[in-house]
Structure formats: C-alpha cells, structure tokens
Amino acid sequence: MIYSIERFAQLGSTNDYLKARAQSGAPEGTVIIAKEQTAGKGRLGRSWTSPQGGAWFSLLLRPPIPLEQAGCISVLIAVSLAKALREHWGIPVGVKWPNDLYVRDKKLGGILIELSSYSDKIEWLIAGIGVNVNNEPPIQTRVPATSLARELGKAINLEEFFAVALDAIARDYGRFLLEGFEFVRKEWQKLSVLPQRIEVESDTERFDADVLGLSPLGKLIVRTQERVRELTSEEVTLCPLQPS
Ligand code: BT5
Considering the chain, what is the average pLDDT of its residues? Predict the structure, then answer.
C-alpha cells in the first residue's frame, strides 16, 4: 500500500473529513492526520477526546473482500498496532475485542470503522484510529485511560509513532489480503485482554457469557447459558463481569 498523508492542525473528525474524500474517489492509502479534533467520534455515537499530543488519524482502505469480512479489519488493525507498540517501545499493549487497545486495565486507544458497501462489496472503508500518545489521558471516561508517554515515563516522537503504526498496518493488511485472517486470529489469541467471563450489553439485551474465541470473520464467539453465539462489533459493549 502506498500512503498519501495529509496533515491538519485541527479538524472536527478525521473520519468525517476522509469520508468526503472517499466519496469523491480518493485512493486507498489516503491518510488524514489532525493535531487535534474538535468533534472526535467513538462508536455508537460516543465522543472521543482528542487534544494536541495524541495520534488522531484515519486511513482509507478499499479492501477487495466481501462485506461479511469487514469485521476482520478492526481486529487486524488493533492487533497490528499492539504488536508494533510492543516491539518498538516495549509497552505491554493488549487488545480488547473488537476495537480497543489496552495497557493492563487502562484504555490506550480505539478504532472506529466506517464503511460504504454496494451489493456485498466494500466501496470504501475508513479506519479511524485514536491513540493517547503524549496528551494527558482524559479523566472522565467509562474505563480509566492511559497514554504511551505515561506508560513509558517520557514523551514519544509523534512522527516516529505514525511511521511505526502505518508501517505495521501496511504490512499486516498486505499479508491479510494474500493469506487471509488466520495469522491475525492467532496473534489476537496471544494479545487479547478479555477475561474468560464477560458481561455483554447491547441496546436490547444484557447477558453473561464465556469467551470461546474469535471466528474466521472476526466475530467474538461466546457461550451463554442457552447457546453458543457470535457477536458482531456493532451490537455489543463488553464489560468485564463484576464479582458478585
Ligand atoms: C473508540 O470508541 O474507542 C473509537 C475511537 C476512535 C477515535 C478515532 S480518532 C481518529 C478518528 N476520527 C474520529 O472522529 N474518531 C477516530 P468507543 O469504543 O466507543 O470508546 C469511546 C469511549 O472511550 C468514550 O465514551 C469515553 O468513555 C472513552 N474515551 C473518549 N476519549 C478517550 C481517549 N482519548 N482515551 C481513552 N478513552 C477515551
């Protein structure tokens, strides 16, 4: 993948900006980086705090895969980033399905996938990636947040961060298109921070489940009291089960 990187001092949301570019035909590999976002987005209408010092960027992909495989991409990017940050800075970064980066029990970053499809083909897919690097991690979050600088005890060169992150994603995305998802699935198993037993919460239901693994389509396989189910990322928020 050849990257074409565009930088901005400030944007509302790098995803929203790139969406307009995607719709007017921007090529795969277009990357939008903003020093800060004034309307950063999380999933399910949640907001994402994006002050200066963090890595807020969006990557345009046009993966030649069926729509049902789209869930593989957020797992792929999370795994790829976790591995790269471990290797490059020695920080024990883990992944929490489907889209979070964690260091121990703290959230380091997240990924927001938005896409457009046409008769089961993906027209464009935007991976919005937010990682707390040198910024103060926000305080009033659902789960406590951390940053790379806090974990490392010193500031990180943001340019180096982008080089390491984009390089890792390009390598793993290329490999995924050639080989399929299995190598990501194996790495996910090593990097997942999900406890064995979780609580799943969607708009309509809430239940406890045991985590069994990741499906070949990037779905989380769980066993509830009644049956084995596959969860898609849009439907659920996972909370580690509180001891009763
Ligand atoms: C995510 O959502 O984790 C996806 C975040 C994606 C952000 C990137 S930045 C570049 C691109 N442009 C955008 O507009 N977005 C993407 P979710 O799993 O829904 O988590 C959101 C929740 O995380 C919020 O409700 C807060 O509780 C918490 N949160 C907000 N900002 C945070 C931060 N900087 N660090 C850690 N947690 C945060």
Answer: 95
In this structure, the residue with its CA closest to atom 34 of ligand 1 is 49
pLDDT digits (tens, 9 = 90+) for 53-100: 999 999 999 999 999 999 999 999 999 999 999 999 999 999 999 899
- CA-nearest residue for atom 9, ligand 1, is 130
pLDDT of 244 reads: 43
Ligand 1 site, CB within 6 A: 13-15, 37, 40-44, 46, 48-50, 56-58, 99-100, 107, 110-112, 128-130, 132, 137-138, 141-142, 145
Q: How far is the CA of 164 from the centre of ligand 1 (A)?
A: 21
Contact 165, 129 (CB under 8 A): yes
Is residue 243 over pLDDT 60?
A: no
Span from the CA of 48 to the centroid of ligand 1 (angstroms): 4
pTM of the model: 0.96
